[in-house]
């Protein structure tokens, strides 16, 4: 199963809206940029054998479950979403398996620097590579549950776009890999 991908429009409206420019992007372009994606049906029994297998293959040793909504986060939800939607990169894979509701990943297309958006929902396991500039946003329902996977202990350490991130070794390595493709 593929993701619905498109170029992000330039509207300053609420980032929880679809922001579809009307220009589709082929799913293969997202994969070429280094994003990995699996569609694994969510278990009604809370068993995640295929996800566990992927975690083991990739060397992940920790996972947790998060629910992002007003009920669980109260007044901190909006500030948390603001942090998610600031362009950033990580020095590690950011693995997310969506359990309920929908959200959007926005990724930078190199070398044009245009934004590509793809919608994720239940059963989507997405892993952007280290060094890729991206953002994440819930949809307009502002409610999503997911499993987060980590190599070691949980980390949300993000490097915002700027001189430090632009010259970070993970960003430089990521760009070398993309150019080679």
Helix-strand blueprint:
Elements: E1 5-8, E2 20-24, H1 27-32, E3 36-39, H2 49-58, E4 62-68, H3 70-73, H4 76-84, E5 88-89, E6 95-101, E7 103-109, E8 114-120, E9 124-127, E10 134-138, E11 144-150, E12 159-160, H5 163-166, H6 169-180
Antiparallel strand pairs: 1-2, 1-8, 3-9, 4-11, 5-12, 6-9, 6-11, 7-8, 7-10
Question: What does it look like?
Answer:
The protein has 181 residues and is of the alpha+beta class. It contains six helices and twelve strands. It has helices at residues 27-32, 49-58, 70-73, 76-84, 163-166, 169-180, and strands at 5-8, 20-24, 36-39, 62-68, 88-89, 95-101, 103-109, 114-120, 124-127, 134-138, 144-150, 159-160. The strands form three sheets. Strands 2-1-8-7-10 form a five-stranded antiparallel beta sheet, with no helix packed on it. A hairpin with a 4-residue loop joins strand 7 and strand 8. The longest helix is centred in the C-terminal third of the chain and has 12 residues, at 169-180.
């Amino acid at each position: 199963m593929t993701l619905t991908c498109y170029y992000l429009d330039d509207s300053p409206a609420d980032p929880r809206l679809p922001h579809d420019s009307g220009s589709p992007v082929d799913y293969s372009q997202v994969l070429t940029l280094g994003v990995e994606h699996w569609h694994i049906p969510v278990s009604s029994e809370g068993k995640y054998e295929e996800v566990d297998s992927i975690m083991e293959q990739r060397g992940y040793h920790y996972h947790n479950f998060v629910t992002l909504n007003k009920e669980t986060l109260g007044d901190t939800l909006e500030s948390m979403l603001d942090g998610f939607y600031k362009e950033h990169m990580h020095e590690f894979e950011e693995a997310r398996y969506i359990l309920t509701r929908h959200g959007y990943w926005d990724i930078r297309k190199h070398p044009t620097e245009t934004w590509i958006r793809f919608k994720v929902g239940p059963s989507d396991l997405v892993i952007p590579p280290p060094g890729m500039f991206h953002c994440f946003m819930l949809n307009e329902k502002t409610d999503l549950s997911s499993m987060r996977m980590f190599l070691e202990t949980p980390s949300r350490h993000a490097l915002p776009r700027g001189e430090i991130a632009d010259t970070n070794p993970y960003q430089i390595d990521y760009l070398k890999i993309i150019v080679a493709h």
